Amino acid sequence: MGPVPCGEPDVVPVPRGEPDPVSSNEPVPVPRGGPDPAWGPPGEPELVMAPSMPPGPLPPPPDAAPPGGATALPRRTHRWGIGAYVVVEAVFVGVSLLIGFAFLGKPVSVTALTVALAVPTVLAAGVAMLITRLRGNGPRTDLGLIWSWHDVRVGIVYGVCGLVITIPASLLYVVLVGPEQASSAVGDVFEGLRAGPVAALTVVLVVVVLAPLCEEIVYRGLLWGALERYALPRWVPFVVTTLLFAVAHFEFTRTPLLFIVALPIALARLRTGRLAASVVAHQVNNLLPGVVLALALVGVLPT
Q1: Which end of the chain lies in a sparser environment, N or C, as judged by fewer CB atoms within 10 Å?
Q2: Domain ranges, ordered by start, for the chain
Q3: pTM of the full predicted structure?
């Protein structure tokens, strides 16, 4: 062999019959620290063994999504259940009775009646939100009270579809019970009263905007979340909240109709998993009755 040019290492041929250390599965000596053994002083390099992997596909990372793109149901970590709904319902009934006794036998104005109708619902919703803060993670997390344009669009769609169902159901209800028995509790309260445009507009805002928001916080928010805490099937909160919503209006002849009215509202909640869609669907459902009531108060329509 001739002289090796300066700066180039000797090329050592691999003997025939022995495995090539590069292509074989045998561990290759890798020096840990220090100079390259090809150029440094002689010595035994320290072997670093690569960890052996079991045969088969690699396991997915811990945060990988389930197959098929499905998302896991949210884990409920709040510390309130059905008892919280009972407390909120007791607040609503108790305040309503107190206001009823205060106005018993006294003439009241449209404005006073509007406030009397709004106060029990607002207090009940306020207690519900307070419970989520004291015993949970707040209304955004526990009640799904998160607003988005997507949920608004879903709520409008379900609200309009609900009107397509509830208007024929309401007409059928009038035929079955008669026009005299077909009025609602709110309509009975304002029957025969007249008001100016401002008071009538206030009634519309309460019936169409405020009342649906507060009722959804109580039923499709607090009660729905209380049932989810017990890891029940998804149809259980859907059916139970819809039924209790219909019964809790204490208009027992209209309970079947109210159950039908509440179905698309609950479907919006079930579809998105959040409260905003059901609030908007409820508001769309109350829009027509609210406008009719306001027109009756200003004298455009008969009461």
Answers
A1: N
A2: 78-297
A3: 0.73
